[in-house]
Write a structure and sequence with these properties.
Blueprint lengths: L1 H10 L3 H12 L7 H8 L2 H13 L4 H10 L3 H13 L2 H11 L11 H7 L2 H5 L6 H15 L14 H12 L6 H16 L9 H15 L2 H10 L5 H14 L14
Length: 262
């Protein structure tokens, strides 16, 4: 069975036959098949689910899954990250906390699982949280803010107030970049656009966290970073300024911004 699976994965010119071969390898535990499974798994939209299942059954599977997930996108990445969340959390925690989300909207299927499995609330409240962890937390929060129907939202994430407040506090100590500005603005916009209970917060918590974010976004150096980092002719710029920036009344996009800030 193993030999048949290997031959089909290596030599088949038909996708269905290659799938049968990978399924045969998925039922086994041989570690020597990891490179072969990783290679076919690079076609992750089709082979991702079986590759994830096969790798998580093998010793050393967590490292192999991380290698493959770095090279996957779209639906394939969803299958692989979910497999990592089912793996031994200790061996994958550092990676999940910093690299699981690539910003794609499909991250909504696993963002809550990553936050829960990797104990995000413990990591982000540490005074030694690094920039990779803080930035990734921003991407996870931005995704969880608006992934209803896909995965866990902030409303159903019990540590939401703690994680949001910690992210906002760390943000104030980071160097300004356009990506950090956008993530923070979109999180703040979500918080003010919905009732506090839909954000997992009380009204007082929600208002305090929004003010934390806005205090950072209105600093001159953060205004300058977003003006320099966004392409004013892009579709995203038009959407962001017309919706998020307008609702938050962000000074960086105000027509009467002073010349001294430019």
């Amino acid at each position: 069975m193993r030999q048949t699976g290997r031959w089909l994965v290596r030599h088949s010119i038909d996708r269905n036959a290659a799938t049968v071969g990978l399924a045969l390898l998925t039922a086994d535990w041989a570690e020597e098949d990891i490179p072969l499974i990783q290679t076919i798994g690079l076609l992750s939209d089709h082979f991702g689910p079986l590759a994830a299942e096969a790798l998580q059954r093998r010793r050393g599977g967590a490292q192999a899954l991380q290698w493959l997930t770095k090279r996957a996108a779209g639906w394939g990445r969803v299958y692989l990250v979910e497999a990592l969340c089912r793996q031994d959390a200790a061996s994958s925690r550092a990676w999940l906390l910093r690299h699981a989300s690539d910003g794609d909207y499909l991250n909504g299927y696993f963002a809550g699982k990553v936050a829960t499995t990797a104990h995000l609330h413990e990591a982000i409240t540490s005074a030694t949280a690094d920039d990779e962890l803080i930035d990734h937390t921003g991407r996870l929060l931005r995704t969880m803010a608006d992934c209803g129907g896909m995965g866990m939202t902030l409303e159903h994430y019990p540590p939401a107030p703690v994680v949001l407040a910690a992210h906002a506090a760390h943000l104030a100590r980071q160097s300004p970049t356009a990506n950090r500005y956008v993530d923070a603005a979109m999180i703040a916009d979500y918080l003010i656009a919905r009732p506090p209970n839909r954000c997992g917060c009380t009204g007082e918590q929600r208002d305090r966290i929004v003010q934390q974010y806005l205090a950072v976004l209105e600093q001159p150096e953060w205004r300058a970073a977003i003006r320099a980092g966004l392409n004013p002719t892009s579709d995203f710029f038009a959407w962001f300024t017309g919706h998020v920036a307008a609702r938050l009344r962000l000074g960086a996009f105000s027509k009467d911004t002073g010349d001294d800030e430019r």
